Structure to design on (430 residues):
């Protein structure tokens, strides 16, 4: 789920950047440092939308670098337990399948795939129902529910299920539209 | 009294309930494990929640006025603390309190058998900082579209690299978007807030794009708790959303 939040960060700037464009350089450094990163607490920082406030700089003893506390607004993406997401399948194997929803990777174990779907190996590994009516393979779109998230310092990894009502395949890349 | 045995508890002749998981060979229970339960249904449900939350975090007891409790308990308790924070995050003021039961139709009204899911599990465990605003996918898509247009200018500078997660998130927001204008979706779903539907639940409805009320209740189980309050409103909202969806499809053709 997307959030628009205000975060604060202490940015260090070398004195060579001081001058009339100090603020621009600070914002550029902030974007370079923060955009694209992931924190376990807030999720993936997708984009910075604005800088609210730049505090007074403090000169650090010994190095001469100056630390500025910067408050900025950003769009973050963070998955939550219980959330329903639409994801695209990226890999299928006999343990289950991996899917991607935005920057987040989700794994759906074969225990959390409906019992009537069996793994079919081959050139295009897939999960298919016994009557062949539903097939989950690479590039399929599936609706799944997040049942658990694991949070590292820099990454969020999720476990999902399609075993509940109204979950499962949305569109099949092989089917005619 | 019958049917309360459940998760490893058995009654002794003196009327107390004892855990079977004590591990003492002679059957004598250590004082720590003896937890008397009264006969009331709702109180027994409080009990199950209390023992689990007690061990997980003290976030509730130490909540500070500036709302930083959730971040503190996350630092100490990690994932496990999200259990109690799901309650805090819902803004209902904590488990067992009067406001909680009034808002959500009351835990006491649960069925006689043990409920399959406890109330916190039904809710989304949203534990974002207090100054955050949930965005629906359509809103996020519009925001990211504007940023994308700026980035197209910036990307001409070879030193600036557009992060991969931005592209992926932008693609996801655009593709998952069933409705073109976020404003109309917001107008339709905003009135639901007055009837106890949380921001997270509203976003879920907008992101999923359900067609029937049964789908909504299946995928957002926390709404089921206040079914009597919100059923007609949600059905109306779904009809209105279906109109926007349909009109967008016609425009595309």
């Amino acid at each position: 789920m997307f959030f628009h939040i205000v975060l604060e960060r202490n940015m260090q700037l070398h004195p060579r950047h001081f001058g009339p464009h100090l603020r621009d350089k600070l914002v550029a450094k902030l974007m370079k440092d923060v955009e694209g990163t992931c924190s376990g607490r807030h999720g993936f920082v997708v984009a910075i939308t604005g800088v609210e406030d730049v505090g007074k700089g403090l000169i650090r003893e010994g190095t001469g670098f100056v630390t500025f506390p910067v408050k900025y607004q950003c769009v973050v993406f963070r998955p939550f337990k219980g959330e329903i997401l639409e994801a695209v399948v990226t890999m299928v194997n006999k343990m289950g399948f991996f899917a991607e929803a935005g920057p987040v990777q989700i794994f759906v174990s074969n225990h959390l795939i409906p019992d009537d779907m069996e793994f079919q190996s081959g050139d295009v590994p897939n999960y298919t129902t016994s009557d062949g009516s539903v097939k989950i393979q690479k590039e399929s779109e599936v609706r799944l529910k997040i049942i658990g998230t694991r949070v590292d310092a820099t990454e969020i990894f999720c476990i999902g299920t399609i075993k509940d009502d109204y979950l499962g395949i949305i569109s099949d890349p092989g089917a005619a539209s | 009294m019958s049917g309360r045995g459940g998760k490893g508890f058995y009654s002794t002749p003196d009327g107390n309930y004892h855990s079977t998981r004590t591990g003492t060979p002679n059957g004598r229970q250590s004082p720590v494990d003896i937890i008397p339960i009264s006969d009331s249904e709702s109180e027994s449900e409080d009990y199950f929640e209390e023992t689990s939350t007690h061990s997980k975090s003290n976030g509730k007891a130490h909540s500070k006025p500036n709302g930083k409790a959730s971040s503190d308990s996350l630092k100490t308790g990690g994932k496990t603390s999200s259990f109690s924070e799901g309650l805090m995050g819902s803004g209902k003021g904590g488990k067992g309190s009067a406001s909680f039961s009034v808002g959500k139709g009351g835990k006491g009204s649960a069925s006689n058998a043990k409920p399959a899911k406890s109330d916190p599990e039904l809710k989304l465990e949203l534990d974002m900082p207090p100054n955050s605003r949930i965005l629906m996918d359509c809103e996020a898509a519009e925001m990211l579209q504007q940023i994308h247009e700026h980035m197209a200018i910036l990307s001409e500078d070879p030193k600036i690299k557009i992060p991969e997660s931005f592209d992926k998130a932008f693609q996801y927001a655009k593709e998952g978007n069933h409705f073109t204008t976020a404003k109309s979706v917001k107008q339709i779903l905003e009135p639901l807030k007055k009837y106890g539907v949380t921001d997270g639940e509203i976003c879920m409805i907008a992101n999923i794009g359900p067609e029937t009320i049964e789908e909504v209740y299946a995928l957002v189980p926390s709404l089921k708790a206040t079914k009597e309050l919100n059923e007609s409103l949600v059905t109306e909202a779904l009809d209105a959303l279906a109109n926007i969806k349909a009109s967008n499809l016609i425009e595309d053709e």
Q: What stands out?
A: The two ends of chain B are 64 Å apart (CA to CA).
